[in-house]
Structure prediction request, 138 residues.
Amino acid sequence: MKIQIINGPNLNLLGVREKSIYGDASFETYLETLRARFANISIDYYQSNIEGEIINKLHEIGFGYDGIVMNAGAYTHTSIAIADAIAAINTPVIEVHISNVHKREEFRHKSMIAANCKGVIAGFGMDSYRLALEHFIL
Prediction:
């Protein structure tokens, strides 16, 4: 089984930015934990701050992977283009968020991509990624 994790803008700064919201661990550190826990599956990771690069990655892997776990960051709330890319591929996508976006600013309450995703997981910290992975392997 092959799963791709895609993180969007500013998530390269996890462990450094807004620790009260996102925690103090880098995603790379958490990724090691995920790969150890799910050693029987291949977990690839991609992060970009650029919308077009995220779309290109979806196009590249969207027909050959078993699942995509995506935290589109702020693009969640703005990107019709990413929503269209998700709709265009065969691989199911689960939208994840570290924080509970519904407890934050009102503009974060609307997801442009959710309607094209298999599901949405938010508010469980980094464990949001684990929960999404568990869906794909069960």
